[in-house]
Amino acid sequence: YQRRVRGPMMKLILLLLTVFITSLFCQPNPEDTVIQSGTKWYDTQRREIHAHGGGIYFDKASSKYYWVGTSQKLPPSWLSEGINLYSSYDLGTWTFEGEIFHNSSIKISTPGPYRIERPKIIFNEKTRKFVMWFHLDTAGFTLRNVGVAISDTINGYYQFVAGFKPDGLDSYDMTIYKDDDGSAYLCRSVENAYAGISKLSDDYLQTTGIISKGPRVEGQAIFKLSNGRYYLLGSHLTGWDANQAVLSVSDGLTLNGATWTVLPVITTSSTTYESQSTYVLPYSCLLYTSPSPRDRQKSRMP
Questions:
Q1: Which of 7, 46, 69, 95 is most buried per CB count within 10 Å?
Q2: Which residue pairs from 238-243 have beta carbons closer than 8 angstroms and sit at least 24 positions apart in sequence?
Q3: How far apart are CA 301 and CA 50, in angstroms?
């Protein structure tokens, strides 16, 4: 005996089947996400997100975003124990991938523990390695180095490669920028006197000399708009106190030999709403900021 499914019941079955199949192949996306600033963020396990001074890596193959940043700063010297990684499809729901680097993995002659700040990850197509750069220092900022580590996978454990003064110069706040042609650049506060931009070697493990000098800023973030111009976002140097953001634009279509013009004030808030830049994600120019410099030691918010 066979019973034929008719009318409304068949439509309901088809609808449920469509929803089920769609859920298998369609991931959430940022278009559906409302991002609320100035509040604590939690991962999918309802734990506070700690990814401070971080950056975003977008994996085109999986359409997944990865957020790398330091763990919570702890007293007495307000140092981070390691570097954390989170993943998301929609920039709003974040899953903890794990700690991908630990303070104790740093092997240099100066004894630790160390200050680890502003980690950024890029992928090198030639070596097939994920390369992470970060500000590496002592608790009292006497080292003034960068640190470099590599991994075979974005969410694997990163092996420490080296700590050094890029181009032989003191380095403080820093960021990494990868251009459309695959060239990569380090931008950092050189001796807290100017923003020095250096092209990286082909393997992304060393700098090859300063090619451009920007304004005296920290909290650097480089991005490029459709007009082909490069923009450098940062803040004044006022210690842990928040200040008004600084935005500069390059004079040409390359970072090599670029000169920078500081644009008019971009916000009416004298403290940039108690925040500081760390990375600009090229998705409708969403701006990611670190916690208030006043609260950065406690690391309450990402």
A1: 69
A2: 238/293, 239/293, 240/293, 240/294, 240/296, 240/297, 241/293, 241/294, 242/271, 242/272, 242/274, 242/275, 242/276, 242/292, 242/293, 242/294, 243/270, 243/271, 243/272, 243/293
A3: 7
Using pLDDT thresholds of 50, 70 and 90, give the confidence band for residue 9.
Answer: low
Answer whether residue 68 shows pLDDT above 60. yes
Spacing of C-alpha 42 from chain mean position: 18
CB 194 within 8 A of CB 237: no
Alpha-carbon Rg for the chain in angstroms: 22
CB of 216 within 8 A of CB of 193?
Answer: yes
Residue 24: predicted pLDDT: 39
Judge residue 156's burial from the number of C-beta atoms within 10 Å of its C-beta, 0-12 exposed, 13-18 middle, 19 or more buried.
middle
Amino acid at the residue 248: S
pTM for the model stands at 0.88
Q: Which residues make Cβ contacts (< 8 Å) with residue 27, sequence separation at least 6? A: 63, 64, 89, 90
